[in-house]
Amino acid sequence: MPTLSHASIFFFFFSLLFPSLHFANSQSFIGINYGQVANNLPPPEATAKLLKSTSIEKVRLYGADPGIIKALANTGIGIVIGAANGDIPALASDPNFAAQWVNSNVIAYYPASKIILITVGNEVMSSTDKNLMSQLLPAMQNVQNVLNAASLGGKIKVSTVHSMAVLTQSDPPSSGAFDPATSDTMRGLLEFQRNTGSPFAINPYPFFAYQSDPRPETLAYCLFQPNSGRVDSGNNIKYMNMFDAQVDAVRSALNAMGFKEVEIVVAETGWPYSGDANEVGPSIENAKAYNGNLIAHLRSMVGTPLMPGKSVDTYIFALYDENLKPGPGSERAFGLFKPDLSMTYDVSLSKSSPTPSTPETPVNPSPNPTASSGWCVPKAGISDAQLQTNLDYACGQGIDCTPIQPGGACFEPNTVASHAAYAMNLLYQSSGKNPWNCDFTQTAMLTSNNPSYNACTFPGS
């Protein structure tokens, strides 16, 4: 299995050199969290307009604010709404309350407002409230019954959101396992989700993993930057970033319990750009690296080692800062956008970025440019980490990387070097075939030798 992980700071360096290669067409797997613990947020209508200008296609609300739900009507943006933990007892015990909740928060706005998922409770299974845990499944079932009665059961899913604390084991990823103390309750939830086709929603935060292990190599691993990787002793897969490792730990736990059919959705993940003086990790540079490289990783469609060839639906935390949130300073500094709708930092989400085109003048051309023909391949001796960076960047630019995904003509040999060579050449061929399009921070070269093999054809002359 190759090291299927992923974009690095090269994404930003290269995009600075080639701003015209930035693109942000809508992608269904990119969502964002819209928290409201603040007193300075822009009007919902302004937020809806902002979202329409980005490639964000889904928004997760923690409640069911009618103003926001209405503002998102007829935008095509998918909406996740939430029932609070405090609503769970009534939803579980009173079908009439469940009907009233669904009628008021869903049916009143659907289908103009594209509600796609209802999350019942947040991180209930990692709480200490055993009574609330026992009421979670009945609450979800009652909400589902109301949706079914309204013929919406197949259109709007019902789930609940978990923290990574639901796993008692997550390292290595292949050992991922749920807490045995709550396994009966979890099994009931998963049976419901398998039967209804709803996703298992999880909140992985490499940021917190870094805070507990603040070494430079851990930071690179968490930020999708070049690093030596970590080998899973259970299956010998090398992981190149913490996000994939955390998501695959959840995949392993689901598989171990017999629920391979249940899909995963990342309900929250993000990195703060500021924090208190004693906090390790928050900075503009780190936040931009994490979120930008995460987006590039999702766009590359390489997936995770245990779920290759697809991108898990991922809701980035967060749309705006929430200035009234308690806790350390970082809790109030996750926003990608400011209340005045300007970007806190740029992670290439704007639709206004032009589609790929050739730069008007060479920028950082190769030292010895050759004729604009042939094929672009990696130089000898380039590390797998750098090749993975090149692979992720190239596939994140909108080229067709399906030939190097499982079942594709160029999937074998299943190595990062082979996959990177194909993707780098395809980006070169698609970007004008100028010498500077085959630079990749001086890790690539032009060749007149056709690298095609067997049924795998490398485009080129």
TrEMBL record:
Keywords: Disulfide bond, Glycosidase, Hydrolase, Secreted, Signal. InterPro entries: GH (IPR017853), Glyco_hydro_17 (IPR000490), Glyco_hydro_17_plant (IPR044965), X8 (IPR012946). Residues 356-368 have a biased composition (Pro residues). Residues 348-372 are annotated as: Disordered. One of its GO terms (biological process) is carbohydrate metabolic process. SMART domains: X8. It is found in: Secreted. GO terms for cellular component: extracellular region. Its EC number is 3.2.1.39. One of its GO terms (molecular function) is glucan endo-1,3-beta-D-glucosidase activity. Belongs to the glycosyl hydrolase 17 family. It catalyses: Hydrolysis of (1->3)-beta-D-glucosidic linkages in (1->3)-beta-D-glucans. This is glucan endo-1,3-beta-D-glucosidase. Residues 374-458 form the X8 domain. Its main location: secreted. Pfam families: Glyco_hydro_17, X8. Residues 1-26 form the signal peptide. The lineage of its organism: Eukaryota, Viridiplantae, Streptophyta, Embryophyta, Tracheophyta. It comes from the Eukaryota.
